[in-house]
Predict the structure of Lon N-terminal domain-containing protein.
Amino acid sequence: MAFLLPSPSPSSSHLTHHKNPSLNLQTLSFSPCNNNSIAVSHHRRRRRHGHRKLTSTVRCSEKHDSNISPNSNDVVELPLFPLPLVLFPGAILPLQIFEYRYRIMMHTLLETDLRFGVIYTDATTGTADVGCVGEVVKHERLADDRFFIICKGQERFRVSKVVRTKPYLVAEVVWLEDRPSGNGEEDLEGLANEVEGHMKDVIRLSNRLNGKPEKDAGDLRRNLFPTPFSFFVGSTFEGAPREQQALLELEDTMVRLKREKETLRNTLNYLSAASAVKDVFPSSSSSS
């Protein structure tokens, strides 16, 4: 599932994604998109430009090279794709690529290891130092040399040195891994379960506010260990990329889960208040 937050119109010249506005996590309204996702928006629908064609016609890439190893301590070179969004390990990201320099990058990737670095950038804060490797798992090349791709988040990295900027950005990177949390694995499990409980409450109240059945959200952990689960939770906060970036940069699973727990708790406070208002003023709530 994913919490899909505000979806502005495209502003980037190289893909169909977009820059997201800053977000007050205590003033969100939730509405279900489908059985597997929740939309968090200001009454705006998420655009799915090209998505149907992408999922029905792309072919799976068969090439893969292990030149870039997540277990290596060596500094490696990685092509970078600055985007106004944050990719987390394990998350799926569909993109449409049509700017010339990134089409060049795609041709190179298809001949090598299909991996590039997704790194957050915006006009205010600039380009981040920490990003996530995206591996192309499906792609479609169009007649005009544009690409539809689906990539999956892999390991995190930190940029140590920019190697070149043309025709696209290439940097030396080092891999990031979470350090062991000081309070032990048992505490981590309990915290992860608390976060899952908050997510279920958010789904329940969201459904109620939007006139949907208050069904049990089921197993959101899906047997994930606390660290990958914390990345999954962070990936659901779409529309708040700066908060997502802060979560991505943390190197302690417990700290990340605590921050996510606080975010979800703030959201629950808002949803509870909104639900109470709806109960008292049902007609005014439905017309807003």
